[in-house]
Amino acid sequence: MTEATILLDPTSERSGAIRARRAPPPSLDGLTVGLLDISKGRGDVFLDRLQSLFAERGIDVERFAKPTFAKKAPDEVSAAIAERCDVVVEALAD
Amino acid sequence: MAMPLPNDGLLLVVKRDCPTCQLIAPVARDLAQRGLLAGLFSQDDPDFPEGLQVIDDRELEASFALDVEIVPSLIRRQGGHDAGRAIGWHRGEWQNLSGIDGLGADLPEERPGCGSLSVAPGMAEELLVRFGETGIRARDVEVHFPEDPVEQMFDRGWTDGLPVVPPTPARVLRMLAGTSRAPGDIVGAIPPGFETCTVEKAAINAVMAGCRPDYLPVVLAALDAALDPDFAWSGLLSTTMGAGVAVLVNGPIAKRIGMNAGLNALGHGNRANSTIARALQLIAINVGGAAPGGVDRSTLGHPGKRGMAFAEDESDPAWQPLAVARGLQPGTSAVTVFGFCGTSINNDEKARDAEGLTGSIATCLNATYHPRFAGGGIGAMLVLSGEYWRIYRGSGWDRARIETALHEATRRAPDKVEQGYVGVHEGGDETGLVAKFAPGDLLVVRAGSSAGLFSTIIQGWGSGPRGSQPVTREVIP
User: Would you give the end-to-end CA distance of chain B in angstroms?
Assistant: First the structure.
């Protein structure tokens, strides 16, 4: 009656690492901004506008796109952003 | 072990609830009086056989250690090993083992024994957990009386909102016996967290879902299909559109495990139909971390998100099963996974011929997502009921003819649709019409009872290469 019931853990038995958010740079001067379009409807409109606003301020911009919002970004897209950009803006929603 | 087994001498294992054990009680007494019995174990009553020094084996520890399958078992031990064994009563064998001639002279020559309590259904796994090495690698979570394990699992966030079956080690061992795959085999990385899932973790969640062990090969095949990148399971698990996984089962496995392809096939009441896809969703929740409000952002969701599985009605040889249409050999057990956002019914009780019925179904199919959406990226699975199929069959139509007719009937003039919904087939085809469904995005299957002029449209999620494509896999035993 007092015996414990043993349940087997159905989870991955891992807890996600919580990383502190990286502090925003004090200035974008000299930095490259990545703009990631995840292929949601009208995401490009939002990013086009951002690109022109950055350009007015003389900030370098690189454009990237996921083939589809339904799947995670291909590794080469993630790697290219990491290699070539200092900060990134991702247009998430429709 | 509470009491170590004698390394040498004769051991006898009996239970009172066995006529053969009762029959040989005088022989046990004879052997004991001669000082030949190094151990006498009773599985159900330590006072049986009466008047003898009996070792209480109601915990079945000795029976498990001695691998007893039948009682009585007379075992000759030598140096800690089995040197001979008589199962049931057989005078010659007992005489050979004991070296006593004329043993049980009043008894018949032989009598079969009874099943050992240690091999009663479900007991083998319980004893392995208590006294053996299970090989299970998952962490133990202890629930102490009077805590309720079912409530504990709710508190830990391990459920889909309905109660789940406590995954005790014995239940998980029984589940693992349902597959030939090793418990440590890696099934894949489960989205949305892309956490590694082993066969053992899948089995734990299958227990929780309420699956029987013989469903596990179907669960594993469905899991393998869902992990194909073409299925985009991560997208299905995170979309605001609220998508679930439908699992269609083809081939002999469906009947073998008692799946329902008939009356209420898409509904409740059948254990396999109700639990196979539920196991997938629990794996996504528990291993992949797909919690509603976390990565799962469903605006509304739908009841089928808990998981819907059904078998295709393959009773009419004139109907080509979906798995065969998708390239597998007839008679192959297979699953097809399909991402879906709910079901709707098509009801036409005035339909009498194939052409009219096609027009009727097409009108409803065209409403998938929105009547003005067309041009690809839209998926649907049409489930033809018995009466609808009877009409088509009576007109001499087969799967290919039905599919072609539905594709033609769902095309629309460009001004009637919002073209290029997700950029496929913009501008219409050579006829100037825009197809509602891209090739392969409309699946037609057979299920349901023979009564009722209804069919069901299972509405897909974004389909095609940029969305979720159906995936078919053979079921490996």
Answer: 36
Are B106 and B232 found together in one domain? no
Whether residue B45 sits in one domain with residue B182: no
Q: What is the pLDDT of residues A20-57, one digit of tens each?
A: 888 889 999 999 999 999 988 888 999 999 999 999 99
Q: Does one domain contain both B124 and B194?
A: no
B330, B336, B341, B343 alpha-carbon torsion, rounded to 10° = 30
Cα separation, B454 vs B254, in Å, equals 23
**Cβ under 8 Å to A: B residues 267-326:** 282, 286-289
Which domain covers residue B171, as residue numbers?
A: 150-474
Tell me the average pLDDT of chain A.
91
Q: What type of residue is B78?
A: Q
Type of residue numbered B448: G
Q: Which residue has the tokens 């998100």?
A: B305
Ranges of H-type helices in B339-398: 354-365, 386-394
pLDDT in tens, B261-282: 999 999 999 999 999 999 999 9
Give A 31-60 residues with CB within 8 A of chain B: 39
| Residues of chain A contacting B234 with CB distance shorter than 8 Å | 71-72
Residues B126 and B181 in one domain: no
The radius of gyration of chain A's CA atoms, rounded to the nearest angstrom, is 20
In DSSP terms, which residues pair with B115 in a beta bridge? B70
Q: Do residue B90 and residue B191 come from a single domain? A: no
In chain B, which residues have their Cβ closer than 8 Å to the Cβ of A16?
A: 193, 289
